[in-house]
Structures are given as C-alpha cells and as structure tokens.
Design brief:
mainly alpha
Length: 216
C-alpha cells in the first residue's frame, strides 16, 4: 500500500489529518528517511532467519521486516502502526466516529505526539515495504532463473537417459538376433556331425539344436 492510501485510511478512521490546531502535514518528498542497500538488507535477513524450505523471505512478518530494515522510531514510542492498533482496540473500536476521533486526539496530545511524527513514521514504513518488495522480487527472479536452468538440465538428462534406454533395447534385440543366427549355424554344423558319426556307429552321440529350449 502506498503512503497516500495508508494516510487516507488513517484519516477516515480517526480524522487525524483533518483535525484542528493548524497542524500541517508535510509532503512525503520533504521527509528524510533512512536508506538501505539490498546487500545490507540481505545480510540483515540472513542474520535473523535460518535457511528453510521454500521462499523464506515471504514468511518474514511485517514487524520483523521493519526491524531488519532498521526503521527509525520516535522516543515517545508512537507510530502509524500503534495508532492503527489503538483505533482497532476494544477501548475505542466500538465508539462513534466523532468520539473515536476525540479520544485518539486526546491520547496523542497527552503523550506529546504530533501528527507530523505519525505521518513521518507512515512514510518510513511505506518506503521500507517498497524496499523489501524490490528485494523479494529480485530474489524471486533469481530463483525463477535457477529453477528454469535446473528444469532444462533435468530435461536434458531425461532425454539422454531415454536415448540410452533406446540404444540398450536395440542392442538387446541385436544380441538376440545374432544369437539365433549362431544357433542356426551351430545346428547345421551339428547335423553335419551327426551324418559323419552315423557312418561309424549306430549310437546317437551328437546333440542337435539349442541346448536351452525355452529361451527368451
């Protein structure tokens, strides 16, 4: 969610941005926020998470993300997130709009929290989310490229294995054919031997044909 959408949600729920006291909401471009490189982000991420199956960066919850990116906080402890949680709490969630607005403005004032601080924090969080999105998308592209390369390698191996299978089956067929041809030659020679032996004895001394009858 972009900061403009976030601020609209806060405004609709609390009236913070349209409240009195002539508090001016700064433009996002004028806010100085912390920047962090993808390399630094990756180091922070690796330090805080162990390797696991699947895309680990997508399992990182939002609070842990803000901690990993070192989003600055204010000394008073209030943030856009704490305001959101407060207006959704049982304390004021059921109040009418004007009463809810009055309550949150009073609480912020009692805690010396300015509207500007809330907006600054919202912008910081939005930029942190955008930074992490770019990081996660980069990792996604890297994994996709690696997966495609792995799939291509496996498909190549499968094709090679299938080619080897076809070659082995063809070799097996040729072996059987060559053996049958040899058996035919053997049988013919044995028949010649039978004729020779029959000239000198009436006894059957020569086996003719394949020794193993039930060959596969």
């Amino acid at each position: 969610m972009k900061v403009a959408e976030f601020l609209k949600k806060v405004a609709a729920g609390t009236g913070l941005i349209t409240c009195a006291d002539s508090t001016k909401v700064p433009e996002p471009e004028a806010i100085r926020t912390q920047s962090i490189s993808l390399a630094e982000l990756q180091n922070e991420f690796k330090d805080g998470r162990k390797e696991q199956a699947g895309a680990a960066e997508f399992s990182l919850d939002i609070d842990a993300l803000f901690q990993a990116l070192k989003v600055p906080t204010f000394a008073h402890g209030w943030s856009a997130e704490s305001v959101r949680k407060y207006i959704e709490s049982n304390d004021i969630a059921g109040l009418a709009h004007e009463k809810k607005k009055e309550t949150i403005l009073r609480v912020l004032k009692e805690n010396n929290v300015s509207l500007e601080d809330i907006v600054v924090d919202a912008v910081r969080r939005d930029e942190a989310l955008d930074t992490y999105e770019r990081f996660a998308e980069k990792k996604l592209r890297e994994r996709k490229a690696q997966h495609q390369a792995d799939v291509a390698a496996l498909e190549s191996e499968i094709e090679n294995c299938q080619a080897k299978i076809r070659s082995l089956r063809a070799l097996q067929s040729r072996d059987v054919e060559d053996f049958e041809k040899w058996i035919s030659q053997k049988t013919a020679h044995e028949e010649d031997l039978v004729r020779v032996v029959s000239l000198v004895t009436n006894e059957s001394k020569i086996s003719v044909g394949a020794v193993t009858k039930n060959r596969k």
